[in-house]
Design brief:
The protein has helices at residues 57-63, 80-83, 86-92, 102-112, 178-193, 197-210, 226-238, 255-269, 284-291, 310-322, 341-348, 368-386; strands at 4-7, 10-12, 15-17, 22-23, 27-28, 33-35, 38-41, 46-49, 72-74, 97-100, 119-121, 127-129, 134-139, 149-153, 158-162, 214-217, 242-249, 273-278, 294-304, 307-308, 328-335, 355-356, 360-363. The strands form five sheets. It has a seven-stranded mixed beta sheet. Strands 17, 18, 19, 20, 21, 22 and 23 form a seven-stranded mixed beta sheet that branches. Helix content is 35%, strand content 25%.
């Protein structure tokens, strides 16, 4: 790929990773990803905003082949998919200075062994004039990591938003219709940003106050209609959970599946939207996305060695780490002779702290009384959801 002009003096010089299918050895990337970097050239100085993943240094090298000098390299975020190529840029441009928050400076020294004298910490609201191009640095701590910041380009009213408003999507297009991007953006929010939703709220207010004409994130397409992604984020962060019950489940000999199928039908009859996820085949990203809006989560699992199935443990650990908004939780499943499945799942969701509803644990195959208990649970969930604000 060649560098792509965005507007006068501003170009995309990032990299497209078509083949990557796993991020951080954890997050599925069904559509690959991009590592966005941007070159801002004024009449007196040039700034590179972020550097690409270490694996994509050749792409950045090609983009910068005709660029004689880079005076500043703005590091919005230390993680290597944003900063991996910084050592290459500093070697290519010996007079280049890295700009980061103070925490960012410290972390770049630790994570990439960049000499401290090549990095300058910038204050929140500090500006740099490149000559007809004015960069303002907007600190955005805990927009994924504690050192994160954004950059505002007054000329053109472009917000370089780092991970905020991003999406893991490999595409050769700079701009994609929001309808085609929304699913990937929501998944990205769920997997990367949701654990810090309360802190991100402040950063959303900062972005909204700037009233950008264009948003250029660090991953995925740029937003030509910023109001659409900003509205979506406002809902994901602030809106109350909706009338949705998510049911991650795993079964070994069929009894738990029997309960799940009956339970899902009961929820539908009660007017509760329900989504079941077979944990043997469901990608964690798909489950995480469903948790953005859910008001209830019911974990369905057989008992294995006196506790929940390992796949159910993973799902609960994920939910607890991502800190979604669901208010109610329960457990349904089966056991052979005993165990502590319910207690273990309750402890696994200690950060989310939902209200736990009466569980339904069945010895062996479900009986009439067990189906009745599942029906009662569905009815309780309906009543709880009616009180959502």
């Amino acid at each position: 790929m060649k560098s792509r002009p965005i507007c006068a003096g501003v170009s995309w010089v990032g990299a497209i990773d078509w083949d990557r299918r796993l991020f951080d050895s954890l997050i599925p990337l069904p559509h690959g990803t991009t590592y966005n970097a941007y070159l801002v050239q004024g009449s007196s100085a040039t700034a590179l905003l972020d550097a690409v993943d270490t694996s994509c240094v050749p792409s950045l090298h090609e983009h910068l082949a005709g660029v004689s000098s880079v005076d500043y390299l703005v590091s919005h975020h230390t993680e290597q998919d944003h900063s991996g190529a910084i050592p290459f840029v500093l070697e290519k441009y010996p007079s280049c200075t890295v700009l980061a928050t103070q925490k960012g400076k410290d972390m770049l020294v630790d994570h990439l062994r960049i000499p401290p004298d090549r990095i300058r910490a910038v204050a929140d609201g500090e500006t740099i004039d490149l000559g007809g191009k004015t960069l303002t640095f907007v600190h955005a701590p805990w927009q994924h990591w504690p050192e994160t910041m954004m950059t505002w380009l007054e000329e053109g009213r472009i917000l370089f938003s780092c991970d905020l408003y991003g999406a893991h999507m490999a595409t050769a297009e700079l701009f994609v219709e929001f309808g085609k991007l929304e699913k990937a953006a929501k998944s990205y929010y769920a997997e990367i940003m949701m654990p810090y939703a309360k802190l991100i709220r402040k950063n959303l207010d900062k972005a909204l106050a700037l009233a950008p004409s264009l948003i250029a994130p660090s991953h995925g397409p740029l937003h030509r209609e910023p109001s659409l992604i900003m509205k979506a984020y406002d809902e994901w962060v602030s809106a109350p959970p909706r009338n949705l019950c998510v049911v991650p489940y795993v079964t070994m000999h069929g009894s738990t599946r029997e309960l799940v199928e009956h339970f899902l039908c009961c929820l539908a009859e009660q007017g509760v939207e329900a989504e079941g996820y077979d944990l043997t085949v469901t990608e964690l990203g798909e489950l995480a996305t469903s948790l953005v809006d859910a008001a209830s989560v019911v974990v369905a699992t057989p008992t294995v060695l006196a506790g929940p199935h390992p796949l159910a443990v993973t799902a609960c650990y994920l939910a607890n780490a991502l800190k979604p908004k669901f208010k109610y939780a329960s457990v349904i499943g089966s056991y052979g002779w005993g165990g502590t499945t319910v207690n273990q799942i309750t402890s696994l969701l200690s950060t989310v702290k939902p209200e736990f509803l009466e569980p339904v644990m069945v010895k062996g195959y479900p009986k009439a009384s067990d189906y009745a208990a599942v029906e009662a649970l569905a009815k309780t969930i309906k009543e709880k959801h009616e009180g959502l604000e």
